[in-house]
Design a protein that fits this description.
- The protein is an alpha+beta fold.
- The protein has a single domain (about 1-180), classed as Cytochrome P460 (Chalcone isomerase, 3-Layer(bba) Sandwich), CATH 3.50.70.20.
- It contains 4 helices and 7 strands.
- Strands 1, 2, 3, 4, 5, 6 and 7 form a 7-stranded antiparallel sheet that branches.
- It is globular.
- It starts with a helix and ends in a 22-residue tail after the last helix.
Length: about 190
Amino acid sequence: MRRIALAGFLLAAANIHAYAESLDEHTYANYVDKDGNISIPVDVRKTWSHLGSWVVGDKQAPGYGFHDVYTQPEVVDIYRKTSEFPDGAVLVKEIRKVEEGSQTTGLAQWAGDVTVWFVMVKDRKERFKGNGNWAEGWGWALYEAKDPNTNVSKGFQVTCLGCHIPAKETGWVFTKGYPTLIKTVP
């Protein structure tokens, strides 16, 4: 019986490793070019896993708006088993305007048009040393809705670090806002 359990465990571990390797290959072939330039994955709302949402309601805050975060479905599976983001994991945060109005249920708020996208790519191999948008085990990119093909990040130190300092202990990711990463019953 112990041999069967051990064999099952080893098979599961091998599957996670193979899953992570194909994720890594796919990410760096499709979303990151040879120089480390990151592109926004297409149609994540439809095809990727939604990790969580929150709203920054302070109109003066730099992150004002509705935040929705997405990742590849296999990243959720791997994270739930390992509590780590695998190499090649991509996180896409979409921030949208806050709309509001009177509804039959009362005053309501909802997400409006996209204003920006933040994209993070997990890099456990330090592929792009010297590229300011790659630091702390991640690639970092910022795109404005008016030009979604241009990364306007001025580098991790300038554009990203200030907001991500509180998430340093969780690998620079605000995981407490992502209930999808927590395995629940049923």
